[in-house]
Design goal:
Length: about 280
């Protein structure tokens, strides 16, 4: 697989990967993955399949895709949207109306974080495409996302039998941080967390041209397609560096969710229990 996002991936390879688990086909939504069935460091325990799903924006979900959410294999009735109002307005990607699905707004960044100056700094980091640049961005996500992430974690605490999906725009950065928090709380080994993150490189490939077209409206990327494509990168090593950051700067996932999300030890214990199961319990 390409490591810098600049070269297109082989279409046959992409088709093969996204046609199989953990990818989940939902028409109109890209980069959908089930975070279940990952082994944990606990003996004979895996993350609960069919419970937590990550994805890119659901704004363009089709009628067939909406029906798919209700099928027995998914039963998704709650969607958490990590995007901000200025972001949706800028890209004309409003919140869709999906029958029997409760969409909850949980923006990571406030509206003022989308000022021209702030966005210019963010885009400059994205344009570099380096692990160091992404870690700066992910540190900002951790600093600002506590309330949003806490809302999702409380859903896990209180509704262990209600499958949910969470997403940002690309389903890579804010979504990737949230996925890492969930998997760390479930005691999933770092290798699998990094592997899951790296799959976004494949999951976003079908939208490659759409991403380039969207970013071409930004001055920084208008004459620099390579810079835009670097935003597609999701290296295994980047998530490794993020997990090291989470441990070194934030004291680990449990300390982070206690301090930034307002959760207690009891909450964390219940969340961990609700995220996992024994393989023998699978129907």
């Amino acid at each position: 697989m390409s490591d810098d996002g600049l070269k297109p991936l082989d279409p046959a390879y992409v088709s093969e990967v996204i046609s199989n688990p953990p990818f989940v086909p939902i028409p109109g939504v890209s980069n959908v993955r089930d975070l279940g069935s990952y082994p944990t460091t606990m003996s004979n325990v895996i993350t609960k399949p069919g419970y937590m799903f990550r994805a890119a924006e659901v704004s363009n979900i089709t009628k067939e895709g909406a029906q798919r959410l209700h099928e027995k294999a998914l039963r998704i009735t709650t969607v958490f949207d990590l995007r901000s109002d200025p972001e949706m307005k800028k890209y004309s990607t409003p919140i869709p109306s999906i029958e029997e699905v409760h969409i909850i707004r949980v923006p990571v960044f406030k509206n003022e974080d989308y000022s021209p100056e702030s966005m210019a700094k963010k885009f400059e980091l994205y344009a570099r495409g380096t692990t160091e640049a992404f870690i700066q961005l992910y540190s900002q996500i951790l600093d600002h996302g506590g309330k949003a992430f806490g809302t999702i974690l409380r859903h896990v605490r209180d509704k262990p039998n209600s499958p949910f999906l969470f997403h940002c725009t690309a389903g890579k950065d804010r979504t990737g941080v949230m996925a890492a928090i969930l998997l760390k709380l479930a005691s999933v080994d770092d290798h699998y967390i990094c592997h899951d993150y790296s799959l976004t490189r494949v999951g976003r490939e079908p939208d490659r041209e759409k991403v380039i077209k969207r970013l071409s409206t930004e001055p920084l990327f208008a004459a620099n397609t390579d810079a835009a494509l670097r935003m597609l990168t999701s290296r295994y090593s980047t998530m490794t560096a993020f997990l090291e950051l989470l441990e070194r700067v934030y004291g680990g996932v449990e300390e982070y969710v206690k301090k930034y999300c307002g959760l207690t030890e009891e909450d964390i214990s219940r969340i961990r229990t609700n995220l996992v199961m024994s393989p023998r319990s699978r129907i």
